[in-house]
Amino acid sequence: MSRWAFKSTFRAALVTAAVASFVGMSGCAAAPTSSYINAAGTEVTVNWKDYPAHAYSLAEEILAAPVKEDAEGVSAAILDELKAALTEEFELQWAANGESGWYPEQGNGYGGKAMTTTFNSVSWDSDNAPVGSSDWEEILAITNRITSAGGLGAVKLSPDAASLKNDPAWHQELLDKHGTTDPNKLYWWTGTAYANSQWLSIALVNVDRDTTGKAAAEYEKSGLPPRSISLSYGVTTLARQDLAAFRDALEPFEGLTPPEATTSD
Fold first, then answer.
1. Does the structure show a pLDDT above 70 at 5?
2. Using CA atoms in the order 79, 80, 81, 84, what is the torsion angle rounded to 10 degrees?
3. pLDDT at residue 253 is higher than 80
4. Which residues form the signal peptide (predicted)?
5. Is residue 65 within 8 Å of 236, Cβ to Cβ?
6. Got the DSSP string for 24-65?
7. E-state strands within the chain
8. Which phi and psi (to 5°) does residue 165 adopt?
9. Looking at the predicted structure, is the pLDDT value of residue 138 above 90?
10. Are 170 and 164 in contact (CB under 8 A)?
11. What is the pTM of this model?
12. Which of 71, 202, 195, 60 is nearest to 129 (CA)?
């Protein structure tokens, strides 16, 4: 068992409290604290303001992500391979939309600073997209092969059957707006492959799948591509030189479950 796994198991069993206090007159929630008994039998209290990641991030995933120095290369490799494979199959051309960029994490959700940073690629948009659901399934199969090989796993569509079943409001919204909740009758699909703090987003649209003509009219007004495949990549990670400091800052929190964020950052 690794040092991390041992400490996580030990501390998780000995957590005694997770307390959120409030600053009197300000009305702002103070950073929560958690207490546990360490291996030496001493009570330790940690303040989540010092947590080095965001409240809704998983530290083990951040540590498994490509480091900052490698992230843009990983992004280019995955997107280039995917564009090439889809082009070979469907004779597409691609154009970059927007700008890529790095976005330092401003806060950790508890009033402190996270050590991570996030990269978002440009969106690559194709000049066309097939109509048939069998072709769309093939697009997903090609994407899943490449994302799985890259360590991101398979694409999960949103919505999918499970999410619609568990969210009646979303089910009704799709029914009211599009007249169906059957993916094979929708003129758009969106999905994300996610693992190790990285994600590959894909969106497919072809207004010809909408027999009412409403989608075509809406897209004509919007100026958005009415038939396209869109791809983008992102990752939240650390610079190589910050890995050791991140692990050190994380150590007092090992085995503890991060509480709900108390700030909106």
1. no
2. 120
3. yes
4. 1-31
5. yes
6. TTT-PBPPPEEEEE-TTS-EEEEEGGG-SS-TTS-HHHHHHS
7. 15-19, 33-37, 43-47, 94-97, 101-104, 117-120, 123-126, 156-157, 188-195, 198-206, 227-237
8. -65, -35
9. yes
10. yes
11. 0.84
12. 202
Question: What are 239's two structure tokens?
Answer: 């610079």
How large a percentage of the chain has pLDDT more than 70?
89
Task: Give the Cα-Cα-Cα angle 197, 201, 203 (nearest 5 degrees).
Answer: 165
- Model confidence at 18, pLDDT cuts 50, 70, 90, reads very low
Q: Quote the CA–CA distance of 82 and 88 in Å, as a whole number.
A: 10
Angle, in degrees to the nearest 10, between helices 133-149 and 68-90: 150
Query: What is the pairing mode between strands 198-206 and 227-237?
Result: antiparallel
Half-sphere exposure of 245 (CA within 13 A, CB side): 10
Question: 211: which 2 tokens?
Answer: 């027999």
Closest by Cα among 264, 250, 261 to 46: 250
Q: Confirm if 156 and 192 have CB atoms less than 8 A apart.
A: yes
Asked whether residue 12 carries a pLDDT value surpassing 70, the answer given is no
Q: Which two tokens stand for residue 178?
A: 């599009």
Pairwise CA distance, residues 125 & 83, whole Å: 10
